[in-house]
Write a structure and sequence with these properties.
alpha+beta; two-stranded parallel ribbon; two-stranded antiparallel ribbon; 2 helices; 4 strands; 31% helix; flat
Length: 75
């Protein structure tokens, strides 16, 4: 039994599925994704949760650019 259909729950389900295990996933929300999801608030769509996990390569690129020393060197 897997409680929660967030990143960890779906990752566990994938592993179990690949190993032909018998399991069930239970999620209390009406959508999967756990805390990483988009919610509607009035006219706005708000991204909440750990989306940083989805854009790690871009974060690395941005961090390198931010921490460059003036004149082209790196810190």
């Amino acid at each position: 039994m897997i409680l929660g259909a967030g990143q960890a729950g779906m990752s566990a389900a994938s592993k179990l599925l690949n190993n032909n295990a018998n399991f069930s996933v239970f999620e209390r929300e009406n959508i999967i994704c756990g805390p990483a999801k988009t919610i509607q608030y009035r006219l706005f769509s708000l991204d909440i949760g750990p989306h940083i996990m989805c854009i790690k390569s871009h974060v690395d690129e941005i961090a390198i650019e931010i921490f460059k020393e003036p004149g082209g060197g790196s810190a």
